Hints:
- There is one protein chain.
- This protein is α+β, with helices and mostly antiparallel strands and 236 residues long.
- It folds into three domains: 121 residues, no CATH class; 68 residues, no CATH class; 31 residues, no CATH class.
- The protein has eleven helices and six strands.
- Helix 9 crosses helix 11.
Amino acid sequence: MRALSSFDLLDLWERGSHLHPLDRALLALNAALPEMTAANFADCPLGRRNQALLELHCSSFGASLQAWTACARCGEKMEFEMDGRAMAKQVADAENAEQNIIVKGQLFRLPTSRDLAQAASEIDSQAAAIRLVECCRIGAGETFAWSDEDVEAVGEQMALADPLAEIRLLLRCPECGDEAEQTLDIVSFVWAEITAHATRLLWEVHAIASAYGWTESEVLSLSAARRALYLEMVRA
Length: 236
């Protein structure tokens, strides 16, 4: 996994700003792993995709993932920090996440980004869940009547087989002590990092180019340390 350069970050931000989050994830991974196509990641289990996004974050922004949420009970701000490398190790390799599961005599493969895209076309949440389950059913042909319990059972087995597909965190409020489970949307998290870094880069280009008359490419070609020093001199 190669680190994203300043040029990569701005290109990703510009090209992905109007895309669906699923497509943003594939675009970012293709930039960090150019030998892999978007189709490769679109068809791999979600846990493998999320593992790759964690590795992208580690290589480009560092292993520490820092975020916050509000306590549902008292509204207190809860800050938390995670080790991206440790989380990525939950999936030893792609082979571990490519197993099938059986629920009520039905065989299923693990969901992919392509499956999520199909499920997202449904307006109703329950219909979306059933659509996702049907997308993953192997040998689907005959009609199957899905109950809420059936859909939940399939989802639980998928979560056990692919632990990084949905990253769940148990957080405790420091103010009222309430404990609640939160889901970390790694796609949105990584894209927020890309946006923040791209915005900061544009401000740096603006400040340095205004002072020295350099082009965007000339400013971005500087190392981060040299850009920081030039900015100090501009502000001085």
